[in-house]
Each structure stands twice: as structure tokens, then as C-alpha cells.
Design goal:
Number of helices: 1
Helix content: under 10%
Structural class: mainly beta
Strand content: 25-35%
Largest sheet: 5 strands, antiparallel
Distance between the termini: 23 Å
Strand order of the largest sheet: 4-3-2-1-5
């Protein structure tokens, strides 16, 4: 379901700005605006509502990415984050940065 508190883009990669999620329009209550200023209507699940269908303008949620740093030790692994933090030593072999998208890959 499309909401006002999340970020979206169109399937074609362009940024989408959600203007309204409750327009009185039957099966197309979501109104968005593209970077070119064009206005598009969508169903509650973000499908572009036009005869013939233009799926390039279907809405896709943009999930935030995060960056963090990891300490790497040779021949060492822990079952939990708490155990790894408790047993961290000054002889850490490496510190690496990773970037990931929330909710993906785990």
C-alpha cells in the first residue's frame, strides 16, 4: 500500500513525489508527480491506472540504504552481535565498510 511517509520512484527510475493517497477516483486514489511535472494516478498498490497500461510509471518504494563499519578478525566468528562486541580486541585484522538496503538479504 502506498503511503505519504515513504519515498517512491517510478519503475523507469525517475523520482516520484506522492501528492495524495485518498483522491476520490474509484480505483486510482494515489496521485503522483514526476520530475517533469506530469501528474499520474495509481491504484492503492502503485499500479499506473491508464488503459493500455504504462508500467514504466508503476510506483516502487525506495528503501533507505545504510552504511556501517565491521571489524574483521582472522579465524574468528561469533554467533551473536553481543558476543562479538564483548570479545573485541585491539588486534582486529581489518575494519571494512558495508552498505546495504534495509530489509534485503537477511
Amino acid at each position: 500500500m502506498i503511503t505519504m511517509d515513504k519515498k517512491y520512484k517510478y519503475r523507469n527510475g525517475e523520482e516520484a513525489r506522492i501528492l495524495c493517497v485518498d483522491a476520490p477516483a474509484g480505483d486510482a486514489p494515489i496521485i503522483s508527480m514526476g520530475p517533469d511535472g506530469y501528474i499520474y494516478r495509481h491504484s492503492t498498490d502503485g499500479i499506473f491506472n491508464k488503459k493500455g497500461g504504462f508500467d514504466d510509471y508503476n510506483l516502487i518504494e525506495v528503501k533507505p540504504t545504510k552504511t556501517m563499519w565491521l571489524n574483521i578478525y582472522r579465524d574468528t566468528g561469533y554467533d551473536t552481535k553481543e558476543e562479538a562486541e564483548r570479545l573485541r580486541y585491539a588486534d582486529c585484522d581489518a575494519c571494512i565498510m558495508i552498505t546495504y538496503t534495509e530489509g534485503e538479504g537477511l
